[in-house]
DNA sequence: TCATTAAGTCCAATGAGTGGACTAAACTTC
DNA sequence: GAAGTTTAGTCCACTCATTGGACTTAATGA
């Protein structure tokens, strides 16, 4: 029934406690050994030993005596090193490539953003461009004294962990072995390369560094061409049985609505996706072949909303209502405390969020104690890369010994 | 970010490995020490020591030499003891009270079922009746040589773990401190008394002993007056941020449908709940004051379905379509591999499941690799009590030292 | 200046798991 | 049927992370 696969031995115990100490340092820095002993429940002796190891790993460093005015001998405060350990996040997307290097404190130590339409280009070319960008960023980080320990790549599709492949129909990828290809092309890293769904990483990015901080569990909705969601529960990503959880795009919001490529009718994507909104706002969805930072049509939509265009406003309201129905389902099933709108919907949030909020509170109001709050993503188009880099940081925090 | 609260010391390590060994015995019984060493990754020495402890706790016993025809010295097979350790599951419900005692092997060692309409009776009376039943069952189990180590109570409502209270509007309960009240009224038990949502326990019951065996993650839908769901992911219950996950009843399946007590419109409950189906089938929902095992109206509905009544069939088909829309949402968001229909819907499954299945495969077919299979619950009205008792068993398996 | 308080280090002790040697109990082969 | 082979289970000296108390260090307060 309940399974624990691996046996615990002395080394396991040590690693766990090491992670425990490092985690408390991260949360309470600067902090003395004595206080760490209280926080962790370990003895001073053990804490001192662990701190020794962490210092040698260059994960922790002394932070200069901070006087606290106490009586006895003052403690020696410890902090996470602003040291060499860093993580890299990458993102491939319909209209840009992006990268971001984060140190252990979550400070951005390098970034890149390349507008690029990857929808109509061969997979190989796209990956080459991604690798070139990654190499450049890694090199720049190295010059600034940062060593990238691992890389996480955000892709707009479903990751099949078992097969090691990615399917991302929106950019024409089918069974692409991203992890293997990148691992071969990038400099070797102790933590290696991992691929993850863009919405999932966006959710983590906002959780750790953006609009999701403080909320234990929430739904991050990320809309571009398709609509996906990342589900964070109790600070952990919820992936589902096959890693395909959070595919909110094909939740049915109108059984008598238009039919969808998925085979069903009235999916959210058909109602609140970019194409649907543009169509309803009567904006031509031309993507002029080349690359634009914000696709032209999206920019035009925002312009019209700002100038109070009635048709655009109605289009966004309709999308909001559709989205609300899908979110009601998500809220009832998953019981989150916050909903974060990302991607396209972060841009539309000023006009869209009120409609969603009122629909949500109307529907769930009488049953559940608290209606989840709706927020726009705080990191804009960087949510996913930050989440990706943060995943590497989190990995180090959870298992400090991976840093060689 | 990632948190581990408790420090690991030698004792923790030992307890973990103890659980590991016990778990492998449960999964592979009968099994020898040598094979256990392989399975767990521990040494023969350690396994032998752990088995010694488990034997002393009366959780494990030798099972007589089973010849395997191998070459060397034959091993001494070990099995879970059919010994004294047992768990108790209780259920309170609109129309019955139920109890079930399970030994460590999941064998039913005692049960009770009392038809009783608890909707219109004071909370205190209902709890008294529950306690009387529980006491009787515990006593009978004791006479048969079984010691109840803990109790789990299934209630048709939301459990607020923080406040220790239960809200179950369907039976008129509001902020009832069930755990505290029962713990005071029942004989002391090492594992104590726990309350849990009925759908959640039903999900676990089916997972461990019924239709869910073998599937790692699934959605258990339990419908009576309201409709709730229990979500099992990777063999674990998914509770959500406030323990209110799986409230599928108020997922919107028809934005233009009838308005619901929750404040929204077109909730599944309005379309696929008992009342809706009876209304559509033109059956009077009289509940003749007294108590009936199957409420009269439900029995009548089944009779008509069996005789091929067209109106009843249409009613169930409509309910199935509504349910399908809600399940599409659940499947897309949670990515389960199986859907189990419980409660009322287990009875209706023969007529309802085909409609749900076809709608599900139509909708998700082209996107996700596999469409989840639909099954009817195998334990009928016992799902929840078995899950409740199983929770106690699982607790012992996960932490054998709780058995004093 | 001396007592007090608290931080950090040192060190012998504890105890769970390890690994190799040993014994036990079967089967195979001559 | 006796000797050799194979596998199961036990014994025992050893390792090593954590512990708890004694000790050292460094500040404050009288």
TrEMBL record, chains A, B:
Protein name in UniProt: ROK family transcriptional regulator
Lineage: Bacteria, Bacillati, Actinomycetota, Actinomycetes, Kitasatosporales
PANTHER family in the record: BIFUNCTIONAL UDP-N-ACETYLGLUCOSAMINE 2-EPIMERASE_N-ACETYLMANNOSAMINE KINASE, ROK (REPRESSOR, ORF, KINASE) FAMILY
Family statement drawn from the similarity comment of this UniProt entry: Belongs to the ROK (NagC/XylR) family.
Domain of life, per lineage: Bacteria
Gene3D superfamilies to which the protein is assigned, alphabetical: 3.30.420.40, Winged helix-like DNA-binding domain superfamily/Winged helix DNA-binding domain
């Amino acid at each position: 029934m309940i399974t624990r696969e691996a046996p615990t031995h002395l080394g396991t115990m040590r690693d766990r406690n090491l992670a425990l100490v490092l985690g408390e340092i991260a949360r309470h820095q600067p902090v003395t050994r004595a206080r760490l002993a209280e926080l962790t429940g370990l003895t001073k002796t053990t804490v001192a030993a662990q701190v020794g190891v962490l210092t040698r790993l260059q994960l922790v460093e002394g932070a200069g005596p901070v006087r606290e005015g106490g009586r006895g001998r003052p403690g020696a405060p410890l902090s996470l090193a602003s040291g060499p350990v860093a993580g890299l996040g990458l993102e491939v997307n319909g209209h840009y490539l992006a990268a971001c290097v984060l140190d252990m404190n979550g400070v951005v130590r390098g970034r890149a953003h390349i507008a690029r339409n990857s929808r109509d280009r061969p997979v190989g070319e796209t990956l080459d461009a991604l690798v070139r960008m990654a190499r450049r960023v890694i090199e720049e980080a190295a010059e600034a004294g940062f060593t990238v320990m691992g890389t996480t790549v955000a892709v707009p599709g479903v990751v099949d962990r078992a097969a090691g492949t990615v399917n991302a129909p929106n950019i024409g990828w089918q069974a692409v072995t991203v992890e293997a290809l990148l691992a071969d092309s990038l400099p070797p890293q102790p933590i290696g390369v991992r691929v993850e769904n863009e919405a999932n990483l966006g959710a983590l990015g906002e959780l750790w560094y953006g609009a999701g901080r403080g909320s234990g569990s929430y739904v991050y909705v990320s809309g571009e061409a398709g609509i996906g969601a990342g589900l964070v529960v109790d600070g952990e990503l919820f992936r589902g049985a096959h890693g395909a959880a959070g595919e909110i795009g094909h939740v049915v919001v109108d059984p008598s609505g238009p039919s969808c490529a998925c085979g069903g009718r009235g999916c959210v994507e058909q109602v609140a996706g970019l194409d649907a909104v543009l169509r309803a706002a009567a904006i031509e969805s031309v993507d002029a072949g080349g690359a634009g930072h914000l696709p032209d049509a999206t920019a035009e939509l925002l312009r019209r909303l700002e100038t109070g265009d009635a048709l655009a406003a109605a289009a966004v309201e309709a999308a909001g209502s559709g989205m609300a129905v899908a979110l009601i389902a998500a809220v009832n099933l998953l019981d989150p405390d916050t909903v974060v709108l990302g991607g396209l919907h972060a841009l539309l949030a000023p006009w869209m969020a009120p409609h969603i909020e009122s629909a949500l509170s109307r529907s769930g109001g009488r049953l559940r104690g608290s209606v989840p709050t709706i927020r726009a993503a705080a990191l804009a188009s960087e949510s996913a890369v930050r989440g990706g880099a943060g995943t590497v940081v989190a990995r180090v925090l959870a298992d400090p010994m991976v840093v060689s």
